Amino acid sequence: MANTTVTWRSVPLLNASGVLTPDGIRLLELELNEERLAVITFVGPPSTRTARNELVIKLLGQTDAAVPSSDDESLILLASVSHRERDFQLLFLDINATNITDPDACSGLEQLIGAVCALSSLVISCYDEINLMSSFVSLLWQFQSLFQTLVDEFVTVEVFEIIPKLLSIDYSPNRSLADKLVEAKNKGQEISASTLANLIKLRDLGFFCPNSIAQMTFDDFVGDFATVKSLFGLEMTGEVLGGLLRKLSLQIDEQRPLDFGIAWDDFVEDKCRAQAEEALSTYVDCVHPAVLEHPPMEFEAFKQLHEDIWRLSLDVYRSTSKFKSIKYRTVRKQLKADIHIQYDHELDSLTQKSREFCESIRHDLWADLYAHATQTPDDRTFAAMLLAIQEFDQQYNEKASGPEKAAVLRSFYKNEAIQAFHQLESVITQQWSEQRLQKLRLQLEKDFDDKKTDLVKHFMHKEAELRSGMARDMETMQKMLEAKVARAKIEESEAKRHRDKLVELKRHNTELQEKLVILEHKQQDALIQNAVLITQVGELEHVVQREIESRTELVETLALTIDKAKKEEFALNERIGELQLELGEKTLRIEGELQDLTQRLRKTNEEKEELQEKLSELMFKVTALPEALQQHLFCVENDGFRIKCHSRPFCCKTHALPAELKETIASVLRKKLQKAQCGGKESRGVVSIVIRCAFRMLHETIFMYYLSHHTF
């Protein structure tokens, strides 16, 4: 706690009725009026007040500090900590909170709990087993109603800045804060989907236990949270805190609904009115002495002074007014109207003073000049009168001043000058005779012409001076008009920019409202879809249950089928084993028969080779026969069959064979075929070989028969 000064105060700021106490007024509006403030508020049931105060004493190291009574139903300022480097005061406030749902049964201070939280930088909720819900500040109806009104009236960013940081300390002996938070949130589900609830979640810092706090220092516990409170872009000071508490107390005293926004506007209006009065006083202090000057100032100078001081007064109002509220513009508009009223009043005073001053100069100056002109001899009276009028015009223009200068001079020429000439004319008419009057008329005509010429020259000179003065005035007025037009253009462009910005904000607000409506429709559709989905889920659960039952029956059937299939498979495996055994036996038998056939084929081939050798010898012998006999032997084809030896075919007649020989040949062929067919499909090649061999043997036999029974 370096560079800090701790002051233990234990002073009530608000009594049980919610009214500022004299000590609270002294502290906030005198001692802490211009100090930047960060406020930490401890809230909880009366049973935790002693623990709360002891916690503050421990953090601040004030072992000998006096602890307020737990029955004290007031807002207590426990202590203040002055940070010299960061230039702000940290205030520790303590207030009891009970869970009372009926606003009519609450005291004035209990109704202000939400407002005190809104004015705090950090709110620490302390609770025990008694009155659990009262310790959670965000669930109190005072907190909910106040901030819900702010959410409805202000933009979300401004409301987020006003919502304090929320911290909870668990003083309960049995249950944990996490369980109680779950219970409290379950009880407050009706606000869980609102914008306010989402903002509160962002400000929630969690909870501490007394054991963990015991190991902390002051900087560890509040160092990160001790920041100067900001309301609508304005830093919290003692003046702001006291003024807002006073306005909120007035709302409760008048039995009006508690509205933080209206209290802020009323506070801003009071401040702006005070500053507007100061600006108006500045205008009066600058303009009124100028009106009282002697001689009175000219109208153009007064108008220029008014415009300069008017801008200065508005600059004074703008420089001191730093509040964000619609009341600022309302008071500024009223200030402009008051300045214009004061301007009209001062202009009337200046006009009256100028008329009195010019009338006084007119009366005194003309009285002296008229008396002097009437004392001259009769023959010079007219010239003296004209000279007196010229002298009056010159001296009056030099001495007179103010807005009524020209009006009084015009009144003089309309009244005193004409009256003087009338009197002069009557006097001259009475004193002079006709002759003298004729001479005088001639002299007067001459003098009149001379004086007329002089007056014409004089008035032409005056006209030139007036024209040059008017030209200068016109040039000055033109410059002023240009400056006014330029200022009007600047203000018009600024107003246009603000109007465009307002139109853009309105359009953006309209889009946001449309999006909000769309989101609400989507939310409603989502709720309907959720109900439909819940119905479909119930139907699907019923269908799934029935499917599970059918699947269970199917599984049981499949289990029986599998058991039966296993038994059949076992029987098939036994049958396959028997067939394999039988196949092995038949394979061995067929292999034996195949070996026999192979041996027989070998013997047949040997016999064939022997017969072939014999046939070759026979053919050799046949070729040795005469050609006629060979032709007779090889060209007989009627009712016979062709025999081919080597490349030369021959035919023999089977019907000429004896019956015994035919029977013998047929029996041999049948035996050969039966033996060849015993081997099945595998012996088809062997059968064809046997048949060919049989036919060859038949041919040889027939040939040998012919050789043995025919002579050549």
Description:
The strands form 3 sheets. A 7-stranded mixed beta sheet has the order 1-3-4-2-5-6-7. The chain has a two-stranded antiparallel sheet with strand order 8-9. It has a two-stranded antiparallel sheet with strand order 10-11. The chain is 69% helix and 10% strand. α1 (22-31) runs antiparallel to α12 and α13 packs parallel to α15. It is built from 21 helices and 11 strands. The longest helix has 190 residues, at 434-623. β8 (230-231) and β9 form a beta hairpin. It folds into 3 domains: 4-257, Rossmann fold (3-Layer(aba) Sandwich); 259-423, Up-down Bundle (Signaling Protein - Interferon-induced Guanylate-binding Protein 1, Chain A, domain 1); 625-709, no CATH class. It is elongated, with a radius of gyration of 68 Å. With 712 residues, the protein is an alpha/beta fold.
CATH class category label of the largest domain: Alpha Beta
Which percent range fits the helix content?
55-70%
Q: Distance between the terminal alpha carbons, to the nearest Å?
A: 158 Å
The oligomerization state is single chain
Coiled coil: 471-522, 562-621
Keywords: Coiled coil
Task: Summarize the structure in short.
Keywords: Coiled coil. With 712 residues, the protein is an alpha/beta fold.
